[in-house]
Design brief:
- The chain has 631 residues and is of the alpha/beta class.
- The protein folds into three domains: 3-245, Aminohydrolase, N-terminal nucleophile (Ntn) domain (Glutamine Phosphoribosylpyrophosphate, subunit 1, domain 1, 4-Layer Sandwich), CATH 3.60.20.10; 263-466, 3-Layer(aba) Sandwich (Rossmann fold), CATH 3.40.50; 469-613, 3-Layer(aba) Sandwich (Rossmann fold), CATH 3.40.50.10490.
- The chain contains 21 helices and 26 strands.
- The strands form four sheets. It has an eight-stranded antiparallel β-sheet. A seven-stranded antiparallel β-sheet has the order 5-6-7-8-12-13-14.
- The structure holds 2-deoxy-2-amino glucitol-6-phosphate.
- 2-deoxy-2-amino glucitol-6-phosphate is lined by residues 317-321, 365-367, 370, 373, 416-418, 506, 624, 627-628.
Length: 631
């Protein structure tokens, strides 16, 4: 969703911008660009389509290193694009500059009223060169700057921003003020790393972490003016606000594939340790109560009081986080006997949901920055609900706004296709369910203990699946050329079918859908023939027999069927399983309620090997970005 950076200081500016952008590459890779002020006080702009490396390849060796002594101040801005308005080409790449090259600007977000602004500026003679929503901002600023006496650029910014609708984080510079860098935030993340006589603006603290250990988190509708004298912050009404400089506690992003060909495969293999880490200190023994002490409690919240008073849970999130939430619904409702609803954050926030102070909103987000989920959090808080977030980033916008923060503890996930965070989020939801069931006495103690004991064994079960990942490879080759593929399951593994389909879609671009196996006969079965493989997930328990019947129904329509089942089912039900499925993948025996944690792993491998086989860009699939900060 675009990553932006800006630097003011005495270090060579171009290498610094490029290094910072590298840490933001997960946000988009449609194009990259930088602009810096040269010794003649002119903006030098470089842009390239595609990944950051393409920009690096066109940068002159000495670009931005400065020709004068180290006392010279350098200023520059940079951008990584995930295209929203205008094709992913060089013309639409940022930075954008005013017609007279006076102002240069980078943007993350969407200017919703760009069309009106563009029409009115064009009518006044402004020449537009790109199709972006961003370009109107730079021209508007230039127009207002020219109409002012040039003495107060903050005022110009305030005037301009009052005309903008939408979500935006901006970093910009003007040749009139060559020792000033400006940063603006409104519903899109932006931070300022604070060093000794130098400052680094970025969309994410990870880009700052290798350079600085102090940080300012800009708030919505704030403008920062950064100069050698320090950082001044103003709100849109022109009032000056005291900047809050906080210690930055995260380490630099470790970009290391640890011998694997792709981050995705590395992260799939990290899952046993991720589960251990996520359980550590929270589930210490079967007869010990779950300890869900939050990483952070904001707004003076008392987590115990909040969890004691709730009578309903609404889980919200997007994509994989949404799927993890669905698994949580099955688990928590079974154990706690309170209603749990799961809704896509993008839908939830626009339908005036009914919540009150007894509703717990569980906001699921790996990044903690997903715009729809963040807005759902804000809306729920305004309506009086308490918000708990399960996130992998304790420093994120969602974590800063939720009442209770439970960390997924999965470690940095680089692959755009989420794997280990799905499993880690489910673990935390399970712990929440166990904890609520314990305090409310809603589930038999013996069964709670059995679940806890089972959870402690999950890392070993995943290890067993990962001990021979290659068994999935032949299937990937065999089915990797299908145009469509269905994943079906029932009960708590239905969300796993959704997740399996999502993994396959996003990295192989094969059309895949996850369905409840029971839904197949209500429509999708009409599509089935020998060209559409159907992968069924069947774990012994409540819905095994029914799921097997549904798989047989698919086979009866000539679909090529793949089964994903457990080793014990292969012993007890060998005949029917072998009769139903052309190919079978197995996972070790696992209680049905815990099975999503294990069953998801072969599906991740299946998607991975298909994408690999098809020669796709596994870690950075086309059109996607790791953090979706636009609606
Ligand atoms: C997962 O593989 C996807 N890349 C995507 O669906 C992701 O889960 C979604 O955008 C939500 O992100 P979040 O967890 O950071 O909020």
């Amino acid at each position: 969703m675009c990553g932006i950076v800006g630097y003011l200081g005495k270090k060579p500016v171009v290498p610094l911008l490029v290094d910072s952008l590298r840490h933001l590459e997960y946000r988009g890779y449609d194009s990259a660009g930088i602009a810096y002020l040269d010794d003649e006080n002119l903006f030098q702009v470089y842009k390239a389509c595609g990944k950051l490396v393409n920009l690096e390849n066109i940068l002159p060796e000495a670009a931005g290193n400065g020709t004068e002594s180290s006392s010279t101040l350098h200023l520059g801005i940079g951008h990584i694009r995930w295209a929203t308005h205008g094709a992913a080409n060089e013309i639409n790449a940022h930075p954008h500059t005013s017609n007279d090259n006076q102002i240069a600007l980078v943007h993350n977000g969407i200017i919703e009223n760009f069309y009106e602004l563009r029409q009115s500026l064009a009518a006044e003679g402004v020449q537009f060169s790109s199709d972006t929503d961003t370009e109107c901002v730079v021209h508007l600023l230039n127009k207002l700057n020219k109409a002012s006496d040039g003495s107060n650029f903050i005022q110009v910014l305030q005037q301009a921003l009052k005309q903008l609708k939408g979500a935006y984080a901006l970093t910009l510079a003007s040749r009139d003020n060559p020792d000033r860098l400006y940063a603006v935030r409104n519903h899109a993340p932006l931070v300022i790393g604070v060093g000794s006589e130098e400052y680094l603006v970025a969309s994410d603290a990870v880009a700052v972490a290798s350079h600085h250990n102090k940080i300012i988190y800009l708030k919505d509708r704030e403008i920062a003016e950064i100069s050698p004298e320090g950082v001044r912050i103003f709100n849109l009404d022109g009032e000056e606000v005291q900047p809050i400089i906080e210690p930055l506690n995260i380490g630099p992003l470790q970009i290391d594939k640890k011998g694997f060909k792709h981050f995705m495969m590395k992260e799939i293999h990290e899952q046993p340790d991720v589960v251990r880490n996520s359980l550590a200190g929270r589930l210490v023994g079967v007869d010990q109560p779950i300890d869900l002490t939050p990483q952070v409690s904001n707004n003076g919240s008392d987590p115990t009081a909040i969890l004691n008073q709730i009578d309903r849970i609404v889980i919200t999130g997007c994509g994989t986080s949404f799927n993890a939430g669905l698994v949580g619904k099955y688990f928590i409702e079974e154990l706690v006997r309170i209603p749990v609803e799961v809704e896509s954050a993008g839908e939830y926030r626009y339908r005036n949901p009914v919540v009150n102070k007894k509703t717990l909103i569980v906001a699921m987000s790996q990044s903690g920055e997903t715009a729809d989920t963040l807005e759902a959090v804000r809306q729920s808080s305004q309506q009086g609900a308490k918000v708990l977030t399960i996130t992998n980033r304790e420093d994120s916008s969602i974590a800063r706004e939720a009442d209770i923060v439970l960390s997924a503890r999965a470690g940095v996930e680089v692959s755009v296709c989420a794997t280990k965070t799905f499993v880690a989020q489910i673990i935390v939801l399970y712990l929440l369910g166990l904890s609520l069931a314990e305090t409310r006495g809603t589930y038999p103690t013996e069964q709670l203990q059995a679940l806890k004991s089972g959870l402690l064994k999950v890392p070993t079960l995943i290890e067993s699946v990962l001990s021979n990942p290659e068994v999935v490879q032949p299937l990937a080759k065999k089915y990797g050329h299908a145009r469509d593929l269905l994943f079906i399951a029932r009960g708590i593994n239905y969300p796993v079918a959704l997740e399996g389909a999502l993994k396959l879609k996003e990295i192989s671009y094969i059309h895949a859908e996850g369905y409840s196996a029971s839904e197949l006969k209500h429509g999708p079965i009409a599509m089935l023939d020998e060209d559409i493989p159907v992968l069924s997930i069947l774990v012994p328990g409540l819905v095994f027999d029914k799921s097997l019947s549904n798989a047989q129904e698919a086979k009866a329509r000539d679909a090529r069927s793949i089964g994903l089942t457990t080793t014990d089912a292969m012993v007890d039900q060998a005949g029917p399983l072998e009769d139903t499925f052309e190919d079978i993948l197995t996972i070790p025996q696992v209680p049905e309620l815990l099975s999503p944690l294990v069953a998801t792993v072969p599906l991740q491998l299946f998607a991975y090997y298909i994408a690999e086989h098809l020669g796709k860009d596994v870690d950075q699939p086309r059109n996607l970005a790791k953090s979706v900060t636009v609606e």
